[in-house]
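[audit] Reproducing an earlier prediction to check determinism. Same input, same settings, fresh worker. If the tokens differ from the archived copy the diff job will pick it up downstream; this log only records the rerun itself.
[audit] input (216 residues):
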Amino acid sequence: MNGLSFSYQGSVYNFPKIYGEFLAPLCFVCVLCSQEFGIPEDKIQSSIRSIQFPAGRGTLLKGKNQSIIIDSSYNANPDTFIALINEVNRWKYEKGPRIIVLGSMNELGKNNTTAHQTVAQQAAHKFDHYICIGHGATIYKKTLMHQGINESQIEVFHSSKDAGNIWIEKCKDMNYTNALFVVKGSQNQVWTERFIPPLLQNKEDISLLARDIPNT
């Protein structure tokens, strides 16, 4: 997975720790503003190489068995969910199974059902397994099955922590290597970052998550 890069007026600008075509306009504006304020080109180049996502906003973490975890667990709404799904699909990852954690989205009011349906429709047929968590999990599952996803590919959990503990055992049983986990969901009562700790290659990386993980 390569970082974001683009060319402008004969120079190449590489953001190695940032990915997502949808972020290209924002990164371009950063370069333009830097130039407008007279920041030297070498300073711009060195600075953009160090820019990275804040915790839980798309950070890449190393998982067990050479797996990759995309941690976008800080929050979720339909637009950001769909943008992440489409970006990951653009990578055409084929080294191992693709597993998405569809955490519920909060504070959607009357649009709650439609929003969860829309995200599930966008995710359908782009992943090998679907882990649905929280109050919107049954909506995700019903929509995925309606889109032709086999029920055996879908699991529903109330708790993100339980889902993570169960899935690390599944990965052992299935001898999964090079899996790609995409983790996203809202905050209150969803907390999909709690899915991640059992999957981490290095326990110390728990400090890279967006929120502290309670012991209980």
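[audit] rerun output stored. Observation attached for the diff report: The chain has six helices and eight strands.
[audit] end
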